[in-house]
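lol forgot to send this yesterday, sorry. struct tokens for the thing we talked abt
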């Protein structure tokens, strides 16, 4: 009998790292680069790469590098919920209303990942690369995921990532406010001089994604309350609680 807790598996971690590395590079990745990144023998990595080639998750280029294969596109197209597919319109609404960058964020393991963005048209703006893993805390979206996370899972994360009992208590108090208010704020905690507001999209009892707006502190500081109302309204429009 197991306790049901998710644990990292070396082979799974290697496979996901291979896929993420291939996806992140326009030129693909070589076997040597992958072996170096994983700190593993080429023979072991080659074995995993061959399996991914066979199932269509990787494909080999003419010069012997590896890039994402067609199976990944099939997964993403079949696995996107209607709510997340329609969230782009909310990003456009948020961006038009305040002309700051609006992003759609999901939770991937112990990371936040931006999967869609509508950027501000202003010269100085928040511009975030998509599909890059970021720490959950203290991002504004991450605070929303933590606030609505099962207590045991949240406590485990805070114990591992926040130093000191006093700091943990402070974060827990903040997360209670997030759960009550339905939105979170980040005032330069992740990136200096970048402020952000986020609100969760809740389907049933689960947070499936977050809407976030972010921009330079000089433009954001005096309108955080208005931006919170804007993002919260769009998130609630997309949410379907049980």
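and heres what i got for the seq, position by position
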């Amino acid at each position: 009998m197991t306790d049901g807790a998710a644990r990292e598996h070396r082979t799974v971690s290697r496979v996901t790292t291979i896929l993420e590395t291939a996806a992140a590079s326009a030129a693909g990745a070589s076997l040597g680069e992958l072996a170096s990144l994983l700190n593993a023998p080429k023979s072991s990595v080659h074995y995993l790469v061959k399996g991914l080639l066979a199932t269509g998750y990787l494909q080999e280029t003419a010069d012997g590098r590896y890039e994402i294969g067609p199976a990944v596109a099939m997964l993403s197209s079949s696995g996107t919920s209607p709510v997340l597919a329609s969230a782009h319109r909310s990003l456009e609404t948020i961006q038009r209303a305040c002309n700051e960058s609006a992003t759609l964020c999901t939770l991937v393991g112990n990371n936040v990942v931006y999967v869609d963005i509508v950027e501000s048209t202003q010269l100085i703006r928040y511009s975030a690369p998509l599909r890059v893993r970021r720490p959950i805390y203290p991002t504004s979206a991450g605070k929303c995921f933590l606030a609505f996370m099962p207590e045991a899972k949240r406590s485990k994360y805070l114990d591992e990532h926040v130093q000191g009992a006093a700091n943990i208590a402070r974060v827990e108090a903040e997360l209670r406010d997030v759960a009550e208010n339905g939105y979170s704020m980040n005032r330069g905690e992740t990136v200096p001089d970048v402020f952000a507001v986020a609100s969760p999209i809740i389907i049933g009892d689960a947070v499936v994604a977050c809407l976030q707006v972010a921009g330079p502190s000089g433009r954001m500081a005096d309108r955080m309350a208005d931006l919170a109302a804007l993002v919260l309204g769009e998130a609630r429009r997309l949410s379907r609680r049980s």
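DSSP finds ten helices and nine strands in the chain. anyway ping me if u want another try
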